[in-house]
Write a structure and sequence with these properties.
The structure is a single chain. The protein is mainly α. The protein has three domains: 271 residues, MetI-like fold; 79 residues, no CATH class; 263 residues, Orthogonal Bundle (MetI-like fold). The chain is 81% helix and 0% strand. The chain has 28 helices and no strands. It is globular. The two termini are 31 Å apart.
């Protein structure tokens, strides 16, 4: 009699065989149906004619503009005045004053490494001739972040204090986070006009969800014991919130601010399409003029700026590790290099300088605290002591203000620092352009690019485009509904049906299938490239560390900038759009492949080797099956990022729903553009929920 495990294995094999047969039958039927079609499948005309979503949106927009435009004008004027004040202050101020305003906070928050890096970033802005544009971008982003953080923290606190309000906000935040960034420009443009004001408002709305979510999460995660202790000492709800919950949730809130900064920078760059000034406009002009050197300069400015602000905001949410007393603290080099004698020798002078500066700062701060304590003690002695203690704990802040004040006085009364020195400028535009030109005319490179473009288009993209667009809409819909039912459940299957009907009724079914094919091809290429890189990283720690640095930079860079290298080497066209999507979307699958494989217990590998399993056999039979949940999460993230990229790929020849969004913006057709943007969101939601449900089932099957 067969054992229970053998019976289970036979049952699983039978289920898998049936599943494979069903998939094969569904594919063959779809292939046959696609060959019977005379052209792209379209939703019934009688449905699209009656469901005039675009007309409803446009009529609603006209009504709101006619009756409430005066309100939007008032809001826009206030924001515009605030932005112009910040912009004029930054641009008209001496460059060294602006530099000190950026470098000093980075030095205080992130230490010597971040301080030196910020100096390099500032120099690069001026050296490549984009000083004013960089400051315009900083001004746009800064005001957007301030407004976003102010309103976001308030809404997050309200969510944490009311379960009903949290339930109300959750679907709104979900929708906001899956909505492509480009779509936020539509209402901003048509209600607030062009320029900095609509860009700030669109950025604020787009970047607000993370700070709301993380503020809510941080406050709710405060332990019940802490709350009960504070309550037992007579704390009111307001005191409990202000003195206990919010201070304890500050790391979570700072993480939210970090996400806000990065999202704000991404949209501020895109805001050039509605008249906002800054680096984004320079990059867009460079792309239109096919000036790769110019575009690369702008892209590097954005990249360096993004890394600087990312590290600056992250430094507030990280707790500094306490080192043993016998370990020398490093200020410039990585702390892991402490075991090397030469590293300790290089850091020794920095340690001495740091001790001297720290001593001076502490003495200066204590002196200022003593003065404040002396003056305020005449009014309230307890308040004076509290203020003095607060000042003493922040011993770098006061000296920084003193330095900033001295620089201002010197510039105003002694001599002028002026604008960024002309002699310091070092343009890399022409060398890059010459290098790209030399590379693109090289026979070997031409053969490579032509071969890659031809392979992607002829073997992947074009056949899939034809296949998906020529399948009858009802069959594609039935397949999606069936997959939703078997992976998620009946409720989501019904939701899938409604979402797909909406896409078809808006008259954008062919465009949605083109978008789906571009995303699928991009994801396939991401897997083909990313999984091997993740495998290598899981076996080689040194390679993994180098790779993580590259991936950090890639995930920090706004996706607008990924168009630049593709445009440089492959020109425009739909294949270039797919390649740009691959570059932008590949980091998650690389990271999660490496993470999934490294997290597999070494015991399993040892058991496999003890039974004579080779490296490849251990990888295929042991590690990969156990890492499937992590791989599927990588797939999920890659798909979402690929959908997000579809908005900007029309700039270099992309098609599908992204092109519809872009055309809607160009033609002032809000309804059409919004329908296409919602279509991208709905497709992303369907695939996201299906992949997450399948991941959950895989985890349960593996007992995770």
């Amino acid at each position: 009699m067969a054992s229970r495990s053998e019976l289970i294995n036979k049952s699983n094999q039978s289920k898998n065989l049936i599943t494979y047969i069903i998939i094969a039958v569904v594919f063959l039927v779809a292939l046959w149906l696609s060959t019977q079609s005379d052209g792209p499948s379209k939703f019934p005309k009688e449905v699209t004619d009656k469901f005039t979503f675009t007309a409803w949106v446009n009529d609603g927009e006209d009504y709101l503009k006619k009756n409430y435009r005066w309100i939007t004008k008032i809001i826009a004027n206030y924001i515009k005045n605030g932005y112009y004040f910040i912009e004029d202050f930054l641009i008209d101020s001496p460059w060294i004053l602006v530099a000190s305003m950026i470098v000093l906070p980075c030095l205080i928050a992130g230490g010597l490494r971040l301080g030196l890096y910020s100096c390099f970033v500032i120099y690069f802005w001026g050296a490549v001739g984009m000083w004013n544009e960089s400051l315009q971008t900083v001004g746009l982003m800064g005001l957007s972040v301030l407004l976003c953080v102010f309103f976001g923290i308030i809404l997050g606190i309200l969510c944490s204090q009311s379960d009903r309000f949290e339930k109300f906000m959750k679907p709104i935040l979900d929708t906001m986070q899956v909505m492509p960034a480009f779509v936020y420009l539509f209402p901003a443009l048509f209600f607030f006009g062009i320029g900095g004001a609509p860009a700030i408002l669109a950025t604020m709305i787009y970047a607000m969800p993370p700070i709301i979510r993380l503020t809510n999460t941080g406050i709710r995660q405060v332990s019940e014991q802490t709350i009960e202790s504070a309550t037992s000492f007579g704390s009111s709800k307001v005191q409990l919130l202000l003195k206990i919950k919010i201070p304890l949730s500050l790391p979570s809130i700072m993480m939210g601010i970090n996400q806000v900064i990065m999202m704000a920078l991404a949209l501020v760059v895109l805001a050039c399409f509605i008249g906002a000034e800054g680096i984004g406009g320079q990059v867009w002009l460079a792309i239109r003029n096919l000036d790769v050197g110019w575009a690369m300069e702008g892209g590097l400015c954005i990249l360096f700026m993004a890394i600087m602000f990312d590290r600056f905001s992250m430094s507030f949410s990280k707790q500094e590790a306490t080192l043993p007393s016998d370990v020398q603290k490093f200020y410039l080099l990585p702390q892991s290099w402490e075991k090397y004698q030469i590293a300790r020798l290089l850091e020794k002078p920095l340690s001495i300088i740091h001790s001297i500066i720290q001593y001076v700062c502490i003495k200066t701060t204590n002196f200022v605290a003593y003065i404040f304590n002396f003056l305020i003690s005449f009014i309230n002695k307890s308040t004076a002591n509290d203020i003095a203690e607060i000042i003493s704990r922040r011993f770098y802040i006061i000296p920084s203000f003193i330095i900033f004040f001295i620089i201002s006085i010197i510039d105003t009364n002694i001599f002028q620092f002026g604008s960024f020195p002309e002699e310091w400028k070092l343009s890399i535009r022409q060398p890059i352009a010459d290098g790209v030109k030399a590379l693109t005319v090289h026979p070997g490179f031409i053969s490579f690019t032509k071969g890659l473009r031809g392979f992607v288009y002829l073997n992947l993209l074009h056949p899939l485009d034809i296949f998906l667009t020529h399948i009858p809409w009802w069959y594609t819909m039935a397949v999606f509904i069936a997959i939703s039912y078997f992976t998620v459940g009946l409720r989501f299957a019904l939701i899938t049906a409604v979402l797909l009907v909406f896409i078809g009724a808006c008259g954008i079914w062919p465009q949605s299938m083109i978008t789906l094919s571009s995303v699928l091809v991009s994801v396939v290429l991401c897997f083909a490239i990313g999984v091997p890189l993740g495998i290598i990283a899981s076996y080689n720690e040194r390679y993994r560390n180098i790779q993580n640095v590259v991936l950090d930079a890639m995930q920090t860079l706004p996706y607008f900038c990924y168009l630049i290298p593709v445009l440089m080497f492959f020109g425009g066209g739909i294949v270039s759009a797919v390649l740009a999507t691959v570059i932008y979307s590949i980091p998650p699958i690389i990271r999660l492949t490496a993470l999934g494989l490294t997290q597999v217990s070494g015991t399993y590998s040892e058991v496999s080797r003890s039974f004579g399993g080779t490296l490849i056999q251990t990888l295929n039979k042991v590690k990969f099956p156990l890492a499937v949940p992590s791989l599927v999460v990588g797939f999920n993230q890659t798909v979402i990022m690929a959908f997000a990229m579809q908005i900007v790929t029309p700039l270099i020849g992309g098609k599908g729903l992204g092109l519809e969004v872009f055309n809607g913006l160009a033609r002032s057709d809000t309804g059409r553009g919004l329908a296409a943007g919602i279509g991208i969101v709905l497709l992303a939601i369907i695939i996201d929920r299906i992949s997450l449900a399948w991941t959950k089932k895989q985890r349960e099957a593996l007992g995770l």
